[in-house]
C-alpha cells in the first residue's frame, strides 16, 4: 500500500450502531439492494425518517438473524430485522431474565455487545 492510497471505511447506517469495517473485523457490510421493492423494505427497516441510502451506504451483518443477508424472499434474512436501538425493557425485567444485574455496571454493560445480545430477544416479542 502506498501512502497516497485511500482506504474506504464503511460504517453501518443504523442509528445507534457503531460498527465499522476495519482490518481484522469479522463483520460483513452490505450494500442496499438494487431491487426497488427489497430496497424499500431495507430502508423501512432502518427506520430513519427522511433518510435515503446512497452508493456508499452499508448495513452491517449484526442486523440479520443469521449474521448475513439472504437473497431468498422467503428467508427471514431477506430484510434486516435485528435492531438493538429499541427501548430497553424495565430494569426489573432485565434482572429476571439475565440474573443479577448490578446497577453500578449499568453504563458499561448497556453498550457492550454481550448486553446487546441479551436485549435483542426482547425485540422479537
Protein model, in words:
It is a single chain. The protein has 125 residues and is mostly helical. The protein is 26% helix and 5% strand. The protein has 2 domains: 1-83, no CATH class; 91-124, no CATH class. Residues 86-125 have low confidence and may be disordered.
Report the sheet with the most strands, covering strand number, pairing sense and barrel closure. 2 strands, antiparallel
H/E element sequence: EHEHHH
Q: Work out the count of structural domains.
A: 2
Shape summary: globular
Give a brief rundown of this model:
The chain has 125 residues and is mostly helical. It contains 4 helices and 2 strands; from the N terminus they run βαβααα.
Topology:
Blueprint: E1 29-31, H1 36-46, E2 58-60, H2 91-98, H3 106-110, H4 113-120
Antiparallel strand pairs: 1-2
List its traits:
globular, 5% strand, 2 strands, disordered C terminus, mainly alpha, two-stranded antiparallel sheet, 125 residues, 2 domains
Amino acid at each position: 500500500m502506498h501512502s497516497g492510497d485511500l482506504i474506504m471505511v464503511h460504517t453501518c447506517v443504523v442509528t445507534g450502531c457503531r460498527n465499522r469495517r476495519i482490518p481484522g473485523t469479522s463483520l460483513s457490510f452490505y450494500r442496499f439492494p438494487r431491487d426497488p421493492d427489497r430496497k424499500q423494505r431495507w430502508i423501512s427497516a432502518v427506520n430513519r425518517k427522511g433518510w435515503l441510502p446512497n452508493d456508499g451506504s452499508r448495513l452491517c451483518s449484526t442486523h440479520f438473524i443469521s449474521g448475513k443477508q439472504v437473497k431468498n424472499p422467503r428467508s427471514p434474512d431477506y430484510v434486516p430485522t435485528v435492531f438493538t436501538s429499541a427501548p430497553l425493557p424495565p430494569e426489573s425485567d432485565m434482572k429476571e431474565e439475565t440474573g443479577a444485574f448490578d446497577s453500578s455496571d449499568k453504563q458499561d454493560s448497556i453498550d457492550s455487545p454481550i448486553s446487546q445480545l441479551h436485549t435483542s430477544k426482547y425485540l422479537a416479542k
